[in-house]
Amino acid sequence: MITPQHPLSVTRQCRLVAVARSSVYYTPQPVPAATLALMRQLDELHLQHPFAGSRMLRDLLRLHGVPVGRKHVATLMRRMGIDALYRHPRTTQPHPGHQVFPYLLRSLDITAPNQVWAMDLTYIPMRRGFLYLVAVLDWATRRVLAWRLSNTLTGDCCLDALETAIRAHGCPRILNTDQGSQFTGTAFVDLVQQHGIALSTDGKGAWRDNLFVERLWKSVKYEEVYLHAYDTVAEAQQHLAVYFAFYNRGPYYPTSLCA
Prior knowledge:
By secondary structure, this protein is an alpha/beta fold. The chain has two domains: 30-84; 116-257, Nucleotidyltransferase, domain 5, CATH 3.30.420.10. It contains ten helices and five strands; from the N terminus they run H-H-H-H-H-E-E-E-H-E-H-H-E-H-H. The protein has a five-stranded mixed β-sheet, sandwiched between helices. Strand 1 (116-125) and strand 2 form a beta hairpin.
């Protein structure tokens, strides 16, 4: 249990139990059970049909006997942090004040650990709520170098995960992320640049630009998350820790590259 009265600072307590700082200060709002069930269905459909937008997901839900409107689907997609994954024309403007960096991995031969890392954030359903999971992945070895859980879409958990990965494994040459505001915000960009890491950004909605992270999310959800209904953050933390230890030992990466 994290408490402000403890001799250790809240930041230090969060690092020790691998929980994002935002989880401590955020007071979750109750979400109706019907909405949680719908979000769970949307999450599964999004994994099966990553190119589907709100209209297609609405139609797929109706085929499953769930009457729902497109606007409600779009609202839940924003809340879950998911988007239709296809190449969009570059007509949208980035978040005001946030720089979007070029994609640096095209035609790059990635052969060694710490050459390229990738980061992403995904939605994790629970029995009576939901969390967000962020992970740092090494492209060459496919190892999960660090991960954090949070109940908000703020950038704190991303900063904590990256700092943990750097402390444990050193710095990569390139870090690849999507265009989410968690990764284009000033605090995150400053942290990356302070360590001399080149920041690479996916094309908007281009899932192939971060293919290995998308594969990781599918494995995590079908092999762990969907098989359990976590009651608490602590339970989710415990189960995912066991899963990632198993994942990092498994045949998901070329063993010749692993020290």
